[in-house]
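[Automated response] Your request has been received and processed.

Submitted sequence:
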Amino acid sequence: MRANFINVVSVDGLDRLFERSFDQPVVVLKHSTTCGISSGVYREVGLVPADVNVIVMQTHRDVSNAIASRTGIRHESPQAFVLRDGKAVYHASHYDIEAEQIEASLAVS
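Generated structure:
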């Protein structure tokens, strides 16, 4: 199984992901459609066998700002998170984002 990419297009949608994180871990990827690094990271995260919720920076910067505010983690792009119980239990940016690390964060109970 490969990643199932789901676009996050509103702050309300992001709020629902934070709520869902109390039941199961949630993967979020901040992605830029004009950045070569982000393109490579998108392919890497595509190897994660889970739903990956994507915030496209060019069209949904408000959602990106909301996740920075909610997690207390400074904005970068590309940037990946695993949310659990309303908190970021994993985050990385740029070339530090690895599918294997995301999968490991999903497996932690």
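Summary generated for your ticket: The chain has one domain: 4-107. The CA atoms of residues 94 and 103 lie 17 Å apart.
If you did not submit this request, please reply to this message.
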